[in-house]
Amino acid sequence: MRPGTPAEVAAMASALDLAGQCLPHGDVPVGAVVLGLDGEVIGTGRNRREQTGDPTAHAEVEALRSAAGSLGQGWRLPGATVVVTLEPCVMCTGALAAARVARCVFGAWDDKAGACGSVWDLARDPLALHRFEVVGGLEQDRCADLLRTFFRQRR
């Protein structure tokens, strides 16, 4: 496990719980938690694409919407940290940049669609309008095991 702050470690435990809530709906088990500057939870989300039929209903997007709504100060989330069980995809990395988050901490690497260092590195692209810090591998084994089990059962 890579180092994470105590708040990030606690958020990852919550994100894993949220990921587990995806299973009854057939959604890929991914959960996300947004932390404010003080380390307090300001938003949560989980994959809900199958449940809602919405292709944008990824955990990170749901969590950003939740955080923006709870703050009531518009769409910008400067200083926020997003903790998510799987490396964000292109769409979600773009949403994190658009929200102006400061940091993304994720669990499992996504070697097929990850956009924070594995396939692409959009979060740190020097041409990007906004860049943010990325820390991968927090609770990596637990996050990856949850995904492997899900996909094994679907085959």
In short:
This protein is α/β, with parallel strands linked by helices. It contains five helices and five strands. Strands 2-1-3-4-5 form a five-stranded mixed sheet.
Plain-language structure description:
The structure is a single chain. By secondary structure, the chain is α/β, with parallel strands linked by helices. It has helices spanning 6-20, 49-52, 59-71, 90-98, 140-154; strands spanning 31-35, 41-46, 81-86, 103-108, 133-136. A 5-stranded mixed beta sheet has the order 2-1-3-4-5. α4 (90-98) links the parallel β3 and β4. The model has no long low-confidence stretch (mean pLDDT 95).
* DSSP helical segment count: 5
**What portion of residues belong to β-strands?**
15-25%
What share of the residues lie within helices? 25-40%
Distance between the termini: 29 Å
Secondary-structure element series: HEEHHEHEEH
- Report the mean per-residue pLDDT as an integer: 95
Q: Structural class of the helices, strands and pairings?
A: alpha/beta
Low-pLDDT regions: none
Q: How many β-strands, per DSSP?
A: 5
Question: What is the 3D shape?
Answer: globular
- Strand order, largest beta sheet: 2-1-3-4-5
Write the layout of secondary structure elements.
Elements: H1 6-20, E1 31-35, E2 41-46, H2 49-52, H3 59-71, E3 81-86, H4 90-98, E4 103-108, E5 133-136, H5 140-154
Parallel strand pairs: 3-4, 4-5
Antiparallel strand pairs: 1-2, 1-3
